[in-house]
TrEMBL record:
Tree of life domain: Eukaryota
This protein's UniProt keywords: Glycosyltransferase, Transferase
Protein's name according to its UniProt entry: GM26128
Gene Ontology MF term list: UDP-glycosyltransferase activity
Family: Belongs to the UDP-glycosyltransferase family.
């Protein structure tokens, strides 16, 4: 996911080669958004790889979509470091910010893991 975010940040089209887990979903999303293309690692040929790379480099729609998406991604009120500093100060000002803590952390083991619901259903 980090390389996807980096590509979006810099407005570059993506060639996805998913191998496992969430990569398939991420690459499908990239294709649907028009940010890039995907190849199946197990079935691809050298010609398909070359043709797909050339398609990404020559078809303007990928470049335009990537640049527009990148511009939207970078349109933030603060830089990431400034945001991190602001939230650190916020937590310090509010003495640990207990009002923002997840309520689920106080649940007992059975409720937290929904064993009570599972037991009722069984």
């Amino acid at each position: 996911m980090q390389s996807t975010i980096e590509s979006i940040h810099y407005g570059k089209p993506i060639l996805g080669l998913p191998f496992f887990y969430d990569q398939f979903t991420n690459v499908d999303h990239i294709k649907k958004q028009g940010l890039g293309l995907a190849l199946n690692y197990h079935d691809m040929t050298s010609d398909e790889l070359k043709d797909t790379i050339l398609q990404l480099l020559t078809e303007k729609r990928f470049e335009v979509t990537a640049r527009v998406t990148g511009a939207r991604y970078r349109d933030q009120p603060m830089k990431p470091l400034e945001t991190a500093v602001w939230w650190t100060h916020y937590v310090l000002r509010h003495k640990g910010a207990p009002h923002m803590r997840v309520a689920g952390r106080k649940l007992n083991f059975f409720t937290h893991h929904s064993l009570d619901v599972l037991g009722t259903c069984l």
